[in-house]
Amino acid sequence: MKYKILLAGLLFCASVCTAQAQQASTKKPLTHAVYDSWKSIAGDSLSNNGQYLLFAVNPQEGDGVLHLRNLSQNTSKQFPRGQKQAFTADNRFAIFQIEPAYASVRQAKLKKKKPEEMPKDSLSIHELASGKTEYVDRVKSYKLPSKSGEWLAYQLETPLPQKAAKDTSKTKTTSPAKPAGRGAGKKDDGTGLVLRHLPTGQEYRFDRVTDYLFSEKGNTLYFVKAEKDSLHKAGVFAFNTSARRAMPVDTGRVSYKNLATDKSGEQLAFVASNDSTGKDLRYFQLLHWTAKNNRLKTLADTASKGMPAKYMVSEHAQLGFSENGDRLFFGTFPRPTQYEKDTTKLDEEKVNVDVWTYRDPLIQPMQLKQLEREQKRSFLAVYDLKRNRIVQLATPEIPDVSLNPDRNADVALGSSNVNYLLSVGYDSPSRSDAWLIDLKDGSRRLAVKDTRGRPRLSPEGKFLYWYEPSDSSWKAMNVKAKVPVNLTQKLNVAFYDEQNDVPALPDDYGLTGWTKDDAYLLVNDRYDIWRLDPNGKAAAVNITDGYGRKNNLRFRYQDLDPRERTVPVDQKILLRTLDLKTKASGYFTDYVTKAGQPQKLVLEPYSFSSVRKAKDSDRLTFRRGSFQEYPDVWVTNTSFSNPQKVSNANPQQSGYLWGTVELVEWTSNDAIPLEGLLFKPENFDPKKKYPMLVYFYERNAETLHNYRTPAPSASTINIPLFVSQGYLVFVPDIVYKDGYPGQSAYNSIIPGVQMLAAKGFVDEKNMAIQGQSWGGYQVAYLITQSNLFKAAMAGAPVSNMTSAYGGIRWESGMSRQFQYERTQSRIGGTLWEKPMQYIENSPLFYAPKVETPLLIMHNDNDGAVPWYQGIELFMALRRLNKPVWMLVYNGEAHNLMQRKNRKDLSVRMSQFFDHYLKGAPEPAWMKKGVPSLVKGKEYGLELIEEPAATTPAPGQEPETHSASEEK
Fold first, then answer.
1. How far apart are CA 692 and CA 764, in angstroms?
2. 3: which of 18, 206, 737, 754 is 20 to 30 A away, CA to CA?
3. Which residues on neighbouring strands pair with residue 124, listed in sequence order?
4. In the chain, ranges of CATH 3.40.50.1820 domains
5. Distance (Å, whole) CA 215 – CA 151
6. Nearest to 822, CA basis, from 812, 836, 833
7. Cα dist from 195 to 122, 192, 207, 241, whole Å
């Protein structure tokens, strides 16, 4: 009998093993053609009662689907192309927009339709209980009051010309709203606005609307109308939703902007102008209206008492009330010099010149980059509605003024780096002064001089607080006092980044927040969270009881209520947790004021993120993922008991060869323990040898459990794609020594590669490296020091630190000097202080040593690394007859932004590495190039079928290519 059982068991095992093998054999490798099918989840949100969940599943290119789940009944509905979704505050309706079909938009673009004739969004109003859905065509936007579920306002697109009416979207429409007002006209003519009472469906319509705003409680809808003619003037109107009637707030002026209402919805502020001259500079007034007495008052203009001399009300500054409604904040600015247009010269006779001078506080490129912002710059002022007075807070000398969150405090914080502008570009962290400003009279007191920190106000405005990099401590100052208190200097714990490896003062570990009434400040060390008395009297308390440090866990506060401005002390708080050794993550709970160690809820080999809790329910959602598992949406409660997965964004993944990832360890040439990630193909066989790609930047080991989506590359290899196609991918961590960034990269990366090669499953004759930006620099440096790699790809590499040092980061206009002296490039001194280190760390000066075929990508609109850095390296290697190619995507930035270019780069990188590491045919763009005569017509992606890949690259003989031989 036992033999029969044994035989049956063997037969069962054989059948299962056969089935598994067949399943594995049916899986396909990922290709560049699959990118568009890979989806992502966006906008997951719970209704206030926690019963309903909305989330969108969107492909990288194409039409997405909005999912609505009834979590109580475990039912689901799908709405094609739904987006911009929200629940009403009373849990009765889901509101969202429906995008036009991707194919219809593409077709309209091919037909060169005018903007107003392009397919437009529709609006969906879905009643949750009944399942009834209504659609409205051609909706531009919608708004809901945050604390009322009864009302919805939506603005319509410009009506189609009658002849183009046939081209409207084919989205089904129930009771379509017909836009009121004029047809296509001037940009500011406005369009129809519809206010809908959701329980009854009753609608109120207003034409020519250019802006609209709900009060928080939904008791008032404010809107602006554009002028139609002399009988239909522009104006601001208020619709009282209780009385169901609209009333004019003000009419007849030329322009109205920047609506703002207070918390009660009973006060309205806006700026308006009667200036119709069309000049660049227009005069605006600050106007204030109260519903209680239907009274409009001018609070500020150029002649108002309290306005600084020659100052004007800004049309660009955002208006805002204090939470108690007693103050209104607005912007002012000094009246600029007006220049008359010179009509005596032709345009070609006018000189355009930038004058650079050593006296400029900011260099010319920075000035030009900030020009538009400076033209719209305003300085914060406040109107005290109880005392009827203007107080100017910010000035050109103290331009940045911040308030406490509710804006009720009597003090503001002024910050100024004006005295330190000349050092911007090389002095990092930058310096500033902090001022305390009295909101009642505008008086100011210098609180902190020459700090490298960022002082802030506590939630109640009782304290100034900041981390001071100069002495690596947290400080606080009672606003009524004059002396700061050092809160952490006596603690035997580091609050600075202990892994800092740049020649600059280290950053802090971050801030948890404040407790109610500004009682405690909560800050982080590397592992735990500390409770500090901002007055410096009570002893500091480690609220996580040192549990993090003892167990190599990092705890960080997880906010569950975005409306809360403080950390609760009377209930459990949720802590995001990362095991710094295994990289497992999850959640613990703890108390701010109650003793005891944190309690584990979940700690698993996954990455956890995006926790969202329902406002009035214990239910919450989170995302959980790993390299093998897309981070879908899960539903649970605050105890994380019985979690349920409720989305399945990428079921197609099961049909593709994927892979695994593991943490590997080795020791650098500097005897420093290091970690890295090793990605292996599915069904990895340790007896086989695999080609290996090595990608690096700085440190990536903490991303062990991160999902990596197959997607076209902006600049780096797509790891799942290459792993699926039979490559190993190694991602080593790197530590740096000041002054020796290149050698540090070598000392970290090469021993890691050699460690893996010694295991026997790496084809050490077919290894390559790839990196972008700082990683691209390290690629360029490594190939001047080692023949270990058969091919290399460097994106936007700095090749010559001596020329790059004096360059400009064109996206910001900043000098690049700071990067070499204090941050990522890590030289730690000026070019004239350490000239040899700039040269020794520059790949360009060692170009003759390069024997590794190199592919460069450096784009001509790169705003981070000037593209002449790529050109210098290319021209040197070309002169030396080394195998080198450079891809320049026209108009593209540091990383590719356009999807078409990302797809192109992905294909070319695959062809490049497949050719050198797998012996695949060489593509035409590598073999023959793409002459400018055929640019845009031919791409050179076709493969040339000849055994070119088996021929050793110039100067690279197979028998000398080993993991143990270095230059």
1. 8
2. 18
3. 96, 135
4. 658-960
5. 11
6. 833
7. 16, 10, 11, 10
Sign of CA dihedral 628, 631, 632, 634: positive
In the chain, the amino acid numbered 889 is: Y
How many beta carbons lie within 10 A of that of residue 190, not counting itself? 25
Q: Whole-angstrom Cα distance, residue 951 to residue 957?
A: 9
Q: How far apart are CA 729 and CA 767, in angstroms?
A: 10
Q: Where are the beta strands (DSSP E) in 215-372?
A: 220-225, 235-240, 245-251, 255-261, 267-273, 285-290, 295-300, 311-313, 320-321, 327-334
Angstrom distance (rounded) from CA 489 to CA 475: 9
Q: What is the pLDDT of residues 558-607, one digit of tens each?
A: 999 988 999 999 899 999 999 999 999 999 999 999 999 999 999 999 99
Quick check: 90 pLDDT over 70? yes
CB 871 within 8 A of CB 858: yes
Residue 539 CB neighbour total at 10 angstroms:
10
Q: Is 286 helix (H, G, I), strand (E, B) or coil?
A: strand
Q: Are 608 and 587 in contact (CB under 8 A)?
A: yes
State the burial class of residue 487 (Cβ atoms within 10 Å of its Cβ: 0-12, 13-18, 19+).
Answer: buried
| CATH architecture group of domain 658-960 | 3-Layer(aba) Sandwich (3.40)
The pair of structure tokens assigned to 750 is 């090469």
pLDDT digits (tens, 9 = 90+) for 735-778: 999 999 999 999 999 999 999 999 999 999 999 999 999 999 99
Cα–Cα distance between 45 and 91 in angstroms, integer?
A: 12
User: How far apart are alpha carbons 818 and 867 in whole angstroms?
Assistant: 19
- CB-based burial of residue 234 (10 Å sphere; 0-12 exposed, 13-18 middle, 19+ buried)? buried
pLDDT for 176 = 40
Tens digits of residue pLDDT in 510-530: 999 999 999 999 999 999 999
Pairwise CA distance, residues 694 & 701, whole Å: 14
Residue for token pair 């919608």 = 142
Amino acid at 861: N
Nearest to 37 by CA among 12, 62, 72: 62
Beta strands in 366-405 (DSSP E): 379-384, 389-392, 400-402
Residues in the chain: 967
What percentage of the chain carries pLDDT values higher than 70? 92
- CA dist 337 and 320 (Å) reads 29
Give dist(CA 659, CA 27) in Å, integer. Answer: 12
Residue 706 confidence (pLDDT) above 80: yes
Its pTM stands at 0.90
**Alpha helix segments (H runs only) across 432-557:** 547-551
- Cβ neighbours, 10 Å, residue 342: 8
Cα separation, 465 vs 179, whole angstroms: 52
Burial class of residue 296 in the structure, from the number of CB atoms within 10 Å of its CB (0-12 exposed, 13-18 middle, 19+ buried): middle
Sign of the torsion angle spanned by Cα atoms 98, 103, 106, 111:
negative
Compute CA distances 636 → 323, 588, 598, 623, 644, whole Å: 34, 15, 20, 11, 6
Give 513's strand partners. 522
Nearest one of 386, 385, 388, 391 to 412, comparing CA atoms: 391
| Distance in angstroms (rounded) separating the CA atoms of residues 494 and 500 | 12
What is the distance, to the nearest Å, from the Cα of residue 509 to the centroid of all Cα atoms in its chain?
Answer: 20
Contact predicate 619/49, CB 8 Å = no
Instruction: Give the single-character DSSP code of 869.
Output: H
